[in-house]
Amino acid sequence: MSDITDNSEVANTAPDELPEYRSLRSDVWRQFRRHRGAMIGLVILVIIFLAVFLGPVLLPYDPFKNNVPDRNIGPTWKHPMGTDNLGRDVFARVLTGGRVSIAVGLAAMLFQVILGTAIGVVAGFFRRLDGVLMRLTDLFLSIPQLPLLLLVVVLFRDPITDRFGQNLGIFILVVFIIGITNWMQTARIVRGDVLAIKEEEFVLAARSIGTSGRKIVTRHILPNVLSPVTVAASLGVASAIITESALSFLGLGFPADFPTWGRLLFDAKDLITSQPARVIWPGAMISLTVLCVTFIGDGLRDALDPKLRSKG
Amino acid sequence: MLRYIIRRSLVAIPTLIVISFILFFIMDQAPGDPTSNVPLTVPAEVRERMREAQGFNDPFILQWLKWCRLMFINEPINLFESLTGTCFGSCESRDRIISWSSRSPALDTIYERLPQTLWVLGLGTLFGTLIAIPVGIMSAYKQYSLFDNVGTFISMIGFSMPVFFTGLLAIVVFSVKLKWFPSFYDTTHDVQFTSWSSIWIQIKQLVMPVSILTLFQASSLARFTRASALDNLNQEYVRTARSKGLSESKVINVHVMRNSLIPVVTLLALTIPGVIGGAIITETVFRINGIGQLLITSIRNGDVPMVQTITFFSAFLVVLFNLIADALYGLLDPRIRYE
């Protein structure tokens, strides 16, 4: 559709003053850059990513190795966040913990977005399945998430860790259960959009030249629901990080010697009177990451909204 | 309207039955055992007979149907009796859902724990809503003003900081450093509404948990109210209201407010499941022995009937509040007619 309007503009202007070609992606990026909060969020998030994934490699401390003589040191140049009650460098542990928290956030987001989009597209495209799938969505919306999450983790921890090993097993379990209890919003949004897009003339045109149903979905419908899905995805990362931290905070997430941000908070909360700073570091990292992701989501929402973009 | 509510309630019943089935199915995989608290000196065959007597060896479907009978028939009758002080038939010997760890009816323990949860969650949600709605509408009315920018930023932060972090932060600052408030909630404190000092203790221990929940609730609601009010401020009917000479306060407080609240009501009802999750976290942070803490300890102890009852109870609340939201929707928006 955009090709047609572009061509007509070209036809109306003299050849020597051709308008600069603007792709959708560059338009979105142009609009995104105007959102100051989103840009700051993006920069900080990139820094957090780099710190978390490169930091533990560069730091001279092993986040897992006890060094009891150096325990409970306050912040110094050598240990910028001090050491914990077993002498491990807190900074190194916070960075290592971030790897897991962010990995869980991204993996759970991918899972829920794929599942939600698939169910939304199927419900919107095939009228016969619509009723059943939407009742299913309503049913999942009525299930209280955190209690179910706690229940499933406790019940299935042992069989799954036996199968996949301690850390990977919990990772799979946590990602699966966060994903399975969070796909409903995406599915609802996608279904609504698909229902509207299905009636558009370009879908009719595609159908009239004999395009198969599968091609219509992948070529014509999916690209058009991409923007709401992107926004839902960014919010999904934020909520998945919080949920994982909450789980670890309750002592039901990853095992004790395996740092994640929530786990570090859980370990620090009993030492709150003697070492209050240890509560603050991991908590601040969770909040900062979620804040950045939320701002980016806001920026994306504005940038992907064609009504706002045309003004820019 | 009444017909709509009745029809919706009838749809809610199968939903609840399916949810109870799913929960039961998940719990059935649990390694928990009702005889795990029985002393080890009891021989294995006696143990087996105890399991048999409690119906633990019955097929899954039968166990579920028995549970449904207890949950949907016996417990409501029992609640009605204890509220009205009446007694129908064999009210003393009626079967009830029994907790494995306390050996007493699960719902009695829940009724015991409920007031603490309601105090904290109810006040948090109430204050959060009372703050969020005016702030959100004011933010939208003065879009991009200093008030709007500061308000939006604070709500972004409040929304991003998880309750378990803000709670611990509040404990560090106000209990450990400043020593203003107690760091945990003393549930044994019996509030005497005739004595000021007793009320004061209750207020002091409620301040921190309630303000933490208020901050969280207000942040997400204010963001949403602002967006909803912005949509409405650009509508034609606002221009009409202004052009016929209505005062600005009337335009905002009557016309814009009422229309902006429609989606907010839905969101409020949809956050109730989140609030139950919030109860678990808040009660862990401030050591309140409410429903959330009961759920955590029951999960750790493998107390299957208790966990089933609490999770089902929260699912029931979710369904109930969805119903209430739909009914309110019709009251707030006369364009919606349920026929």
Secondary-structure blueprint of this entry?
The complex is a heterodimer of chains A (312) and B (339).
Chain A: H1 2-12, H2 24-34, H3 36-58, H4 90-125, H5 127-141, H6 145-164, H7 166-180, H8 184-198, H9 201-208, H10 213-221, H11 226-249, H12 261-268, H13 277-304, H14 306-311
Helix pairs in contact in A: 2-13, 3-4, 3-13, 4-5, 4-7, 4-8, 4-11, 4-12, 4-13, 6-7, 8-11, 9-10, 11-12, 11-13, 12-13
Chain B: H1 2-28, H2 44-53, H3 60-84, H4 106-141, H5 146-160, H6 163-177, H7 196-233, H8 236-243, H9 248-270, H10 272-285, H11 291-301, H12 304-332
Helix pairs in contact in B: 1-12, 4-5, 4-7, 4-10, 5-7, 6-7, 6-10, 7-9, 8-9, 9-12, 10-11, 11-12
Question: What attributes characterize this protein structure?
Answer:
heterodimer, A: 312 residues, mainly alpha, 14 helices, 0% strand, globular, B: 339 residues, MetI-like fold, 12 helices
- The best one-word shape of chain A is globular
Tell me the structural class of chain B: mainly alpha
The count of strands of chain A amounts to 0
CATH architecture of the domain at 113-332 in chain B: Orthogonal Bundle
SSE pattern of chain A: HHHHHHHHHHHHHH
String of helices and strands of chain B? HHHHHHHHHHHH
Count of alpha/pi helices of chain B: 12
Question: What is the makeup of the main sheet of chain B?
Answer: none
Notes on the protein architecture:
- The complex is a heterodimer of chains A (312) and B (339).
- Chain A is 73% helix and 0% strand.
- Chain A is an all-alpha fold and 312 residues long.
- The longest helix of chain A is centred in the middle third of the chain and has 36 residues, at 90-125.
- Mean pLDDT of chain A is 80; it is low at 1-11.
- Chain B has 339 residues and is mainly α.
- Chain B has a domain at 113-332: MetI-like (MetI-like fold).
- Chain B is built from twelve helices and no strands.
- In chain B, helix 6 packs antiparallel against helix 7 (196-233).
- The A-B interface holds A 37, 138-139, 141-148, 150-152, 154-156, 158, 238, 242, 245-246, 249-250, 252, 262, 265, 268-269, 272-273, 276, 279-280, 283-284, 286-288, 290-291, 294-295 and B 15, 18-19, 22-23, 26-27, 29-31, 156-157, 159-162, 164-165, 168-169, 171-172, 176-177, 183, 270, 273-274, 276-277, 280-281, 284-285, 295-296, 299-300, 302, 307, 310-311, 314-315, 318-319, 322.
